[in-house]
Specification:
Blueprint lengths: L6 H10 L6 H13 L2 H17 L1 E2 L6 E2 L5 H4 L4 E8 L2 H10 L4 E5 L17 H9 L5 E4 L5 H14 L5 E4 L15 H9 L2 E2 L1
Parallel strand pairs: 3-4, 3-5, 5-6
Antiparallel strand pairs: 1-2, 6-7
Helix pairs in contact: 1-2, 5-8
Length: 199
């Protein structure tokens, strides 16, 4: 077994630190990188560096982008009256892959989890409220994960929106309770968007 201080040992440890990657998978990935042609391996490493150095949150919706605003926010073909609130960028990507939603998004950058020290100040809720107060949004779709923390986050946002002239809906419960959006298949997400209900 490679020493953790060796180059291959460090690479195995790096892969093993990723979510859902066990020790054996980390070893397979590390040895796969080792077998890659030099140019491919360098391009792989460069893509990681570029992501860390070039990506930033969109100044409007907090999606990831290399510019000031993301491609979705600048797309004039999207319905600016529809705003889907999601926890993470990966949730936004899951909905986009379903292909049935043509509105805009707001990424909260997490969800309320008081026991883990995540309060409203650590999320982009204030920025969301400011967007809605500008008056262009007519419907806010709560796309938070259907579990205790996700529902609590949606309730907290709904209470902040009370009195504003927007309707609040949530994704239909065709999504499995406790499952994350990134694990839902395309058809399930499309149905959830189409059959959303009042919050």
């Amino acid at each position: 077994m490679p020493e953790p201080t060796s180059a291959i040992g460090k690479l195995i440890e790096a892969f093993a630190s990723l979510p859902s990657i066990g020790r054996k998978s980390a070893e397979r990935l590390a040895y796969h990188v080792l077998k890659m042609p030099h140019d491919e391996a360098i391009a792989f490493a460069e893509s990681i560096r570029a992501v860390k150095e070039n990506l930033r949150p969109c100044r409007i919706c907090f999606n990831l982008t290399e510019a000031e605003q993301c491609e979705i926010c600048v797309d004039r073909r999207r319905d600016s009256g529809l705003l889907c609130v999601v926890e993470q960028v990966r949730d936004l990507l899951a909905i986009e892959q379903a292909g049935s939603y043509r509105g805009l998004y707001h990424v909260l950058q997490g969800r309320l989890a008081p026991l883990e020290g995540v309060g409203p100040e650590k999320l982009s809720i204030d920025a969301l409220i400011k967007r809605i107060e500008q008056g262009e949004v007519r419907e806010v779709i709560m796309g938070t994960t259907p579990n205790v923390e996700g529902d609590g986050t949606a309730l907290a946002i709904a209470s902040r929106l009370a009195g504003l002239p927007v309707s609040i809906t949530r994704l239909a419960r065709g999504l499995t309770v406790g499952a994350s959006l990134e694990q839902a298949n395309r058809d399930m997400l499309a149905d959830a968007i189409a059959s959303r209900q009042p919050f």
